[in-house]
Design goal:
Elements (H helix, E strand, L loop, with lengths): L1 E10 L5 H15 L6 H10 L5 H6 L2 E11 L7 E14 L25 E8 L8 H15 L4 E7 H9 L3 E9 L5 E10 L1
């Protein structure tokens, strides 16, 4: 069977939330273990990491789908396509810098693109699809959408794992942030910024 895989970006919809929850859990456990302790990972998954339904409602959360077309035979009617969400990330026009629905430090006020930076938010990649350019594709789409909305600066609270990608993409570290977690642990992240 011949297989061909393409990555397609689209806006997330509420029906994606169960798949996104599983993806975020797998991503954090599989890709952040070199940068965070097991206790930090568990605490972060219960406190700050997770789906942000406000991003989905705002139409600023993007999923990357791997679309595989396989053929059993040469006849076109036997072509089957399967999709799998392999990454996600977004941008926000609201004040919240990081955190999913469970995060208590949310600030949902709208930003002013003339003076505020758009927030780059909630990037997670399926470990089986890591280091294949998916995060960069999502980031470019987020920056383009924020630019189209009038923003000229971007900022984020990057995980230690994500900061490596974002540094290569022109983001600079501004200051460390320590996020208190519900299990008593602290999650270090990096406030990063970029100007267009």
């Amino acid at each position: 069977m011949a297989m061909q895989t393409n990555i397609h970006l689209r806006l997330a919809i509420p029906a994606d939330i169960p798949v996104l929850r599983a993806l975020i859990d797998a991503s954090v456990r599989g890709l952040q273990a070199q940068d965070y302790t097991p206790a930090q990972i568990e605490g972060a998954l219960k406190t700050v990491f997770g789906v942000d339904s406000q991003l989905i409602a705002d139409g600023t959360y993007i999923v990357a789908e791997a679309i595989s077309a396989g053929r059993k035979h040469a006849e076109p009617e036997n072509v089957r396509a399967a999709t799998l969400i392999v990454g996600c990330g977004g941008w926000s026009k609201r004040k919240t810098l990081y955190g999913g629905d469970r995060w208590t430090g949310r600030e949902d006020e709208l930003l002013d693109p003339r003076r505020d930076a758009a927030k780059i938010r909630a990037f997670f990649i399926d470990p089986a699809w890591a280091r294949q350019g998916i995060g960069g594709m999502i980031l470019e789409a987020c920056e383009a959408a924020a630019r189209a909305a009038g923003f000229t600066r971007y900022e984020m609270g990057a995980t230690l794992t994500g900061a490596k990608l974002f540094g290569v993409k022109g983001y600079v570290a501004v200051k460390p942030i320590s996020i208190p977690l519900m299990n008593g642990e602290v999650l270090p992240v990096i406030h990063m910024e970029k100007q267009t």
